[in-house]
Specification:
CATH class of one domain: Alpha Beta
Radius of gyration: 33 Å
CATH architecture of one domain: Roll
Helix content: 25-40%
Strand content: 25-35%
CATH topology of one domain: Endonuclease I-creI
Number of strands: 34
Shape: elongated
Length: 679
């Protein structure tokens, strides 16, 4: 069942718990949500709330250039949902560039800070934006060592990860176009006049221009640029696709005036302008260049052309060498190819990116950096962080990888904020301070349970957002939801960290008499220090244990999720034994241990926290999660075995009693004889 909202009302409460939070009260059109896929043990869920007052927000200036999947850049203000851009992910032991899509885009207004790096890169961002540092993981623009704003934050000499600031793309001036045509046509074109006598004609000269390419984008750019000199060409199929070879198309003209114009356009200029040099390098790279395995080179057999290419590289400030490619001989020896020479760019990925953005070749497949490691020789140390003293429009996006490349550095984004955009809300600022409350959830649930298409399937709650978060104390939606589910005898379960669930104990007991009801409480540790460091803002773990005990004493089968277990922090035998004993004493029906998962983005944030709070464990985690986000299978199996052994030593868990049969009764304005029952 899809979820659509309407009739929005906004409210604020001037109380300590809710100060600064706005509640968006909505009338939902549906409340039972179908879970996509079949990888979970339940098919339906209910989420009466969306949003979180503890969420972070990340925003950067609208003119910040973002690295697109085609190798070009676009201001973040112009990014749209569905655009393909570059993000990053771990591949083996290294973080690599990968392509990802934009899932959400939003704007807000926030106080602006300017972060300046040693190479001159400037980033204008909000104080709660995060960037990836080389040694300390994700860090906020600003923060503090203690108090409410305690968090890892940037300081001078922190080194960011990325390629460094993006170069400005060239304008396609007439000089740029002339340079591009010179490079393309001299590199890959055919421009000739054939002289011979024809009977009855004074002059039998045939003028010919032809350019054949398998990359149509470069062919079309050449065709477009030639029109600036009134040269029209016709396009035709030059070579059909066969085997591993792609189709080639070509453009041509045989008019003498066109031939003479083209010949004039591609002449070497006496004093080439910077625009001409940029265009020339773009054209010759499209014609004869390559970029593979981190090596950018342009090859040709024409020594004059090689000299011009080398000079053009130097004029734009690129370091390069001229060399002969090495060939493998039949005997297995490697020797230089004396016929072909190449100009090779020095400086690695950073210089290749600067080359692409400075000259703007047309063929985007040659600009791909996908799967390249994020390694840099550019000095990306933070040299200053200064408030601008003004609030500016800020933008952010959600991507599949959880990050993106902003002006050459790896920038964090938010996964969950896109859920706010369906209400046309500001997902940047609103997500952390505006909680969506589906105020009609109980009434709507009654309507959906009465519908003919509902068959009484199990409903799981707490699978996305905690139904017993702080807002529930005011709105009391769960009382209506639990009461309605009990009335319809519809089976359900609840996963929560909130001890507020005890408020509804009476309704849970009533529902358990007529249908299957189960609960689980998330309690990863009882260690006071670990809890305060890793799970601030949640109810005390001892209070959660007490809630488990009371639920079980009342006849509600309730277990404990021992998750996540943090290696070296909360996995000591005595720490796990404390939770095991508490589970046994509380009459828990199950105890499920789960080792910490470190998926992309979560990994960087966690490693930054680890570096700050437990620096001695960083190397252990790097080794433990080098190849698997879930940790080694052997470690997971060992953990399960250890918990099983500790449970046996502690006397074992409370045996499950026979569950009552599932019953679902459709309540509607129909005779009892027409009501559907599942026994």
């Amino acid at each position: 069942m899809s979820e659509t909202l309407f009739e929005v009302r906004r409210r604020t409460f001037d109380t300590p718990h809710f100060r600064g939070i706005e509640f968006i009260e909505v009338e939902a059109k549906s409340i039972i949500n179908k879970v996509p896929g079949n990888y979970l043990p339940f098919g339906y869920t209910i989420n009466p709330y969306r949003g979180c007052s503890h969420a972070c927000s990340y925003c950067i200036s609208g003119d910040t250039p973002i690295l697109m999947a085609d190798g070009r850049t676009k201001p973040i203000s112009d990014i749209r949902v569905g655009d393909e851009i570059y993000g990053t992910e771990f591949g083996g032991k290294y973080r690599r560039y990968v392509k990802t899509r934009v899932a959400a885009h939003w704007s807000t207004v926030k106080p602006a800070y300017r972060v300046t790096l040693a190479d001159g890169t400037e980033l204008v961002a909000s104080e709660d934006h995060r960037f990836l540092t080389k040694l300390r993981g994700w860090k906020y623009v600003t923060g503090s060592m203690s108090g409410e704003n305690q968090r890892p934050y940037l300081t001078t000499n922190n080194e960011l990860l990325g390629t460094g600031r993006f170069a400005k793309a060239p304008e396609h001036t007439l000089d740029y176009k002339r340079g591009y045509l010179c490079g393309m046509i001299r590199g890959d074109g055919h421009l000739a006049v054939h002289r011979y006598q024809r009977a009855g004609r004074r002059n039998g000269d045939v003028y010919q221009f032809r350019l054949a390419l398998k990359d149509f984008v470069a062919l079309r750019r050449t065709q477009e640029f030639l029109r600036s000199w009134d040269v029209e060409t016709s396009e035709f199929l030059y070579l059909e696709a066969a085997g591993n070879h792609n189709e080639m198309r070509a453009i041509r003209t045989q008019r003498r005036s066109h031939y003479e114009t083209i010949r004039e356009v591609v002449e070497w200029p006496g004093e080439p302008s910077t625009d001409w040099v940029k265009g020339f390098l773009a054209g010759i790279f499209d014609a004869e260049g390559s970029y593979s395995r981190g090596v950018l080179r342009v090859s040709n057999t024409d020594t004059e052309l090689i000299g011009q290419i080398a000079t053009a590289f130097t004029e734009l400030g690129f370091r390069r060498i001229v060399e002969a490619p090495r060939l493998n001989t039949p005997s297995g020896d490697v020797r230089p190819n004396k016929e072909v020479q190449c100009v090779r760019l020095l400086g690695g990925l950073e210089e290749a990116m600067r080359f692409f953005h400075t000259v703007d070749p047309a063929i985007t497949r040659k600009r791909s950096i996908e799967r390249s490691c994020i390694k840099t020789s550019t000095d990306l140390r933070v040299v200053s962080i200064r408030p601008l003293g003004v609030a500016l429009p800020m933008y952010d996006i959600t991507t599949g990888t959880g990050d993106f490349i902003a002006n050459g550095v790896v920038s964090h984004n938010c996964f969950a904020r896109s859920t706010h955009t369906f209400l046309d809300m500001d997902a940047g600022r609103d997500f952390e301070s505006k909680i969506v409350v589906k105020v009609n959830a109980p009434e709507l649930l009654r309507k959906e349970l009465s519908a003919k298409k509902w068959k009484g399937e199990h409903i799981a709650m707490g699978t996305n957002t905690d139904p017993y978060q702080r807002a529930e104390g005011r709105y009391r939606l769960m009382r209506g939801i639990v009461g309605t589910l009990g009335e319809f005898r519809n089976p359900f379960s609840i996963l929560t960290k909130g001890t507020l669930i005890l408020r509804d104990l009476d309704l849970l007991v009533e529902a358990s008499k007529v249908t299957n009801v189960a609960c689980a409480m998330s309690i990863p540790t009882l260690d006071e220090d670990v809890w305060r460091r890793s799970e601030p803002g949640t109810p005390h773990p001892r209070k959660r244990v007490e809630a488990v005990r009371k639920l079980n004493e009342a006849g509600i089968p309730t277990g404990i999720m021992l998750a996540p277990i943090l290696p070296g922090i909360s996995d000591a035998p005595h720490q796990i034994m404390d939770v095991v004993k508490a589970a046994v004493d509380a009459g828990a029906t199950h105890l499920t241990p789960i080792l910490l998962h470190l998926r992309p983005v979560v990994r960087e944030e966690y490693m930054g926290w680890l570096q700050a709070d437990y620096p001695g464990l960083v190397k252990r985690y790097e080794d433990l999660y080098a190849d698997n986000a879930y940790g080694p299978k052997a470690a997971r199996n060992a953990l399960a075995g250890r918990v099983k052994g500790l449970l046996a030593a502690a006397g074992g868990l409370k045996p499950l009693v026979d569950e009552p049969p599932q019953r679902f009764v459709r309540r509607a304005t129909k005779p009892a004889s027409e009501q559907l029952r599942l026994l």
